[in-house]
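Hi R.,

As promised on Friday, here is the backbone we talked about, encoded as structure tokens. Could you run it through your design pipeline when you get a chance and send me back a sequence?
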């Protein structure tokens, strides 16, 4: 993956996104991975942004919640404000001087066969309404769309979280990968630093932290899959100072200075990353099967 923004590890990952079911929920954050598709000399490559809920604001007598964006490319800025009205979400874009008129951003009352953005060249049609269980065990409505007139272009919304394309980018489809612009992909959604939802297309909140590094430096792990012990193979006798096991949310679940053999018996089944730190830093995927 091309990563022109290496220093975004702390900022990380952008948040576009979407609403909480209640305006009273605090510290909402959306992390997003994006791709520049601009033509030269404009930026080309990957980027990350962090969107977070800010203060309440009164617009036309109604209370909205502000959304801010943190981006190394564009700095920190106010993007707009949203409000919930039952199962509908409305958004007012900040234009630098005032808020634009609100638009309907989400309608979670849609059912199979319904249309959204009817006036667009390629309106969205609901193809499936289902239920998912988030990371806190809460059931949330999931709405999947196809775009009329486009082949294999889909989008999904998760109630209280937003679109898999990000909060402010409903209806942005990848029909032409060569077209100029930016594509956004929601990685995950946090409330009060707790991971509520992870996009199943990415299975991580922080690509910069846990992306597998496949450089041929002689570092490998075995067995893989494993269930009790993982061994580090260091063919080039590199100086290794520590090893971390990282889960799919980007959280370090095990850290050790034993660089030969790691006991993983207490970890749950699933996918992890092994980060080997020393002269060079290597990251390898690890699958734990019990």
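Update: got your reply. Pasting your designed sequence below so it's all in one thread:
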């Amino acid at each position: 993956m091309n990563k022109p923004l290496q220093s975004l590890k702390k900022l990380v990952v952008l948040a576009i996104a979407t609403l909480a079911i209640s305006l009273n929920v605090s510290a909402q954050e959306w992390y997003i991975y994006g791709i520049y598709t601009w033509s030269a000399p404009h930026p080309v490559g990957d980027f990350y942004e962090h969107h977070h809920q800010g203060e309440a604001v009164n617009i036309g007598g109604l209370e909205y919640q502000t959304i801010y964006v943190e981006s190394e490319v564009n700095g920190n800025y106010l993007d707009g404000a949203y409000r919930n009205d039952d199962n509908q979400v409305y958004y007012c874009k900040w234009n630098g001087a005032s808020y634009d008129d609100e638009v309907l951003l989400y309608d979670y009352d849609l059912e199979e066969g319904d249309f959204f953005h009817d006036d667009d060249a390629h309106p969205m049609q609901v193809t499936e309404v289902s239920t998912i269980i988030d990371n806190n065990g809460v059931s949330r409505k999931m709405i999947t769309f196809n775009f009329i007139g486009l082949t294999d272009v889909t989008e999904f919304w998760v109630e209280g979280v937003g679109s898999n394309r990000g909060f402010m980018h409903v209806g942005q489809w990848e029909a032409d990968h060569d077209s100029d612009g930016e594509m956004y992909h929601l990685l995950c959604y946090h409330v009060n630093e707790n991971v509520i939802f992870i996009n199943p297309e990415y299975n991580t909140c922080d690509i910069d932290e846990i992306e597998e590094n496949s450089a041929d430096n002689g570092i490998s792990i075995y067995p893989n899959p494993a269930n009790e012990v993982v061994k580090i193979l260091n063919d080039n006798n590199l100086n290794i100072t520590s090893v971390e096991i990282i889960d799919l949310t980007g959280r370090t679940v095990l850290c050790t200075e034993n660089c030969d053999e790691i006991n993983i018996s207490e970890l749950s089944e699933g996918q992890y990353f092994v980060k080997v730190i020393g002269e060079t830093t290597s990251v390898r995927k690890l699958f734990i099967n019990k």
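One thing I noticed while checking it: The CA atoms of residues 145 and 155 lie 5 Å apart.

Thanks again,
M.
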